[in-house]
Amino acid sequence: MIKFKVLITSFFLVSCVAVLPAAAADVPFFLGEKIHYSVKQMGIKAGDAVLEFRGDVYLEGQKYSLIIFTARGFNFYDEERIYVDTVTLLPKKVMRDLNIFGIKENILEDYLVSDGFVKVTKTSSGKTTVSTINITNTGSVDNIYSFLYRTRLHEDIKVGKIFDLHLPTMTIKLEGKMEQKFNAAGNTYQSVMFKSVPPKYTVWFDPGPKKLPLRISGSLGIANTVMVLTGYEAK
């Protein structure tokens, strides 16, 4: 399960800019929405995950929208509280709570894009370390989960559509390659498969009204992490 933690950690920073519509009715997701996933690596189930949209919150006097990603497995827990800009849905802070075989770690990611780096503060066993990830690309840097929500704001999730995704040190392109029937959570979707160049990510989106991310996979070092939709809740 330690490998699972490393892979989820690696699903880290990408970017694409969109603007949140002024009218709530235009947004394909809702306050309290939960998307459930099964998580596999190397074809073996490693755990379950939930992606939740909590809406507007205040942190340190600042207003954000909050996205929460939670993954659970055998002797494994990972919660990411992603505080994003209320208009662009770009991340400003990410607070992570990890517990792997009883070893706890808290991680704070400050997205200091104007300063040219992401500040990472880790606390474990009473010790705190601070490191930075330099941003060599221009523009905004993202978290994969806020990227999924922002992509859902686009009407044209279709074959041929290209999203530019900016990692701190490189840019990739995610392009709609083909339509494909996709069975998940007891339903059949006519999904659009997006593949990245270089080949880092593949995401299957439902182009329907909810624009659900049905499957997310990433070639991350020594193994492949796959998240597949298992359920959906909307309050």
Walk me through this protein's architecture.
It contains two helices and 14 strands. It has helices at residues 2-10, 144-151, and strands at 34-41, 44-59, 62-73, 76-84, 91-100, 103-112, 117-124, 127-134, 162-166, 171-184, 187-197, 201-205, 213-220, 223-233. Strands 8-7-6-5-4-3-2-1-14-13-12-11-10-9 form a 14-stranded antiparallel beta sheet, with helices on one face. Strand 7 (117-124) and strand 8 (127-134) form a beta hairpin. It is globular.
Coarse structural class: mainly beta
Compressed to H and E, one letter per element, the order equals HEEEEEEEEHEEEEEE
Distance between the termini: 32 Å
Total strand segments: 14
Question: Topology of this structure?
Answer:
Layout: H1 2-10, E1 34-41, E2 44-59, E3 62-73, E4 76-84, E5 91-100, E6 103-112, E7 117-124, E8 127-134, H2 144-151, E9 162-166, E10 171-184, E11 187-197, E12 201-205, E13 213-220, E14 223-233
Antiparallel strand pairs: 1-2, 1-14, 2-3, 3-4, 4-5, 5-6, 6-7, 7-8, 9-10, 10-11, 11-12, 12-13, 13-14
Q: What descriptors fit this protein?
A:
globular, disordered N terminus, 7% helix, 2 helices, 235 residues, mainly beta, 14-stranded antiparallel beta sheet
